[in-house]
């Protein structure tokens, strides 16, 4: 009886050691996963999406996945019957901080997109602060979007036509513009100098001129007038 109990106890200990070794190997594999990979709590192998709401209260989802030589980021939003999405491509694995915490890299991009009324109409490229010192290849660059942005047409707006001068109607007299009359040159005004009217000489003056010196003719004419009266 004792021998049977020892055999059962030995088998139980062996099974327990095998189970413990298996669990330890699984933990070791998970701890030595490749840097830059994001594990999912559900064990699907895909990184967990990041959900957020932007300024327009759109429900948005950010999903990122690794490709051959780059990482793809897709942002999808929908609200009130409208939906849109955009893709970004980059090589964030060139940033050392991204390898330590990839999810925080995309969280910093999400904090910028949530400030916009349309999360796909932001910057052409995003370089999170945690990778600011990294090369530009580590940033996420815009690749595609839907719906596409409407391009501005090259048609110019309506131009104003020059006003044509109005033609006079038939039977109506042309209206003359006084401002358009030719300026007539003014004729020079002739100035005439009037000679002072000569006072007729009296009989006394004539007698004085005949009988008196020229210097005293006025006095002689005066006295002759006295005697004449």
Automatic annotation (TrEMBL):
- Xref: InterPro entries: FGF1-bd
* TM regions (residue ranges): none
Location of region: Disordered: 25-52, 146-201
Q: Which Pfam families match?
A: FGF-BP1 (PF06473)
Give yes or no: UniProt keyword Transport: no
One GO molecular-function annotation for this sequence?
Answer: growth factor binding
| Listed Polar residues bias regions | 32-43
- What protein am I looking at? Fibroblast growth factor-binding protein 2
Provenance organism: Bagarius yarrelli
């Amino acid at each position: 009886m004792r021998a049977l109990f020892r055999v059962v106890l030995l088998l139980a200990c062996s099974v327990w050691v095998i189970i413990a070794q298996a669990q330890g190997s699984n933990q070791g594999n998970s701890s030595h996963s490749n840097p830059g990979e994001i594990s999912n709590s559900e064990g699907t192998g895909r990184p967990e999406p990041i959900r957020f709401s932007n300024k327009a209260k759109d429900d948005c989802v950010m999903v990122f996945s690794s490709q051959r030589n780059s990482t793809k980021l897709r942002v999808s939003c929908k609200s009130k019957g409208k939906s849109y999405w955009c893709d970004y491509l980059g090589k964030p694995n060139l940033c050392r901080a991204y390898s330590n915490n990839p999810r925080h890299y995309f969280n910093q991009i999400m904090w910028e997109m949530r400030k916009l009324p349309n999360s796909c109409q932001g910057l052409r490229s995003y370089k999170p602060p945690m990778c600011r010192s990294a090369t530009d290849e580590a940033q996420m660059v815009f690749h595609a979007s839907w719906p596409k942005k409407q391009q501005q047409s090259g048609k110019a707006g309506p131009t104003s036509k020059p006003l044509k001068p109005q033609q006079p109607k038939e039977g109506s007299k042309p209206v003359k513009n006084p401002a358009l009359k030719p300026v007539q040159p003014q004729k020079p005004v002739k100035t005439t100098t009037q000679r002072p009217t000569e006072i007729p000489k009296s009989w006394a003056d004539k007698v004085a001129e005949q009988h008196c010196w020229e210097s005293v003719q006025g006095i002689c004419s005066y006295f002759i007038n006295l005697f004449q009266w």
